[in-house]
Amino acid sequence: MSVRDSSSSRTIVDLDPSAGSGARQSAPARGRRPRDDPVVAADGSPRASDSPGLAPGPGGPMSVLVAVCALALCAILSAALFDSRRKRRELEQRLVVADRAAHTDPLTGLANRAGLQRALDHQRATTRPSDHIAMILLDLDGLKETNDLYGHDFGDSVLVAVAHRINEKAGHAACAARLGGDEFVVLLSGEAPHDADALATELCAAIASAEVMSEMPIRCTASAGVAVLPAHRMHQLVTAADQAMYRAKSTRAGTSRYQPLADVADRIPRNRTALVALEGGASKEAQA
């Protein structure tokens, strides 16, 4: 370091090398900043370092970590969505199986009472009041004696064979059902009710020709009752067909069609005593 003496025009030169070197080392170079100085933004806030290893840029470790986490989250969500869809399909299949079991006779595969009621509800909702609905009610003859003679397993085989013949002959029907025991029902709609009598005769003939077992050539017969009513009287179909069936069984006619006037005539003798009693009670109340 050199100092100029103002009193004399002499220049004093400090030749101490340690002082000069220390001064040079302590003074930072102009235009350069030390590495340990913090980098401060124009507003006074600290900024990220210029070191490429710590910078959170597009290729930094933080970006890689975020990408890995995003991919893992997508994989977890995809697996959860796939599992939920699989469980939903399994639940839908179970519901279909449960619905089929609730409306199907387990022995014959035909509809049961619940299945028949659902078919009636569907017909009630889809047919016009002026349309006609037909029902054929079949009752097997002598099934109780067959069960007593050959056992209930053989009787079940008879029911299965009858159901197979009903499916063959009445496959176009709106519903074929087993009401329980030895009673079967065929529900017809559209143009089919006009052919209900002919179909009932065919069903009785097909049941009579059904062979249950080749080693036991036993034939089964059936009585059929036919009822054809307007759609607005659909709730009376089962009762009307049942009355016609019992008339066919009692007369051994094979098939019988529901006749409202004949049914009333049959019920008058049986109910005459009840009518007289009711009339007597009403007259006493009127006199009182």
From TrEMBL:
Which SUPFAM superfamilies does the record match to this protein?
Nucleotide cyclase
Q: Which Pfam families match?
A: GGDEF
Q: Which GO terms describe its molecular function?
A: diguanylate cyclase activity
> Would the keyword Nuclease turn up in this protein's UniProt record?
no
- What ranges does the record list as Polar residues composition bias? 1-11
User: GO cellular component terms?
Assistant: plasma membrane
Task: List where the protein spans the membrane.
Answer: 62-82
Write the record's keywords in alphabetical order, separated by commas: Membrane, Transmembrane, Transmembrane helix
Domain (GGDEF): give its ranges. Answer: 131-263
Q: Name one GO biological process term.
A: cell adhesion involved in single-species biofilm formation
Location of the region described as Disordered in the Swiss-Prot/TrEMBL record: 1-56
Question: What PANTHER family would the database entry show?
Answer: DIGUANYLATE CYCLASE DGCM-RELATED (PTHR45138:SF9), REGULATORY COMPONENTS OF SENSORY TRANSDUCTION SYSTEM (PTHR45138)
Would you tell me the protein name for this molecule? GGDEF domain-containing protein
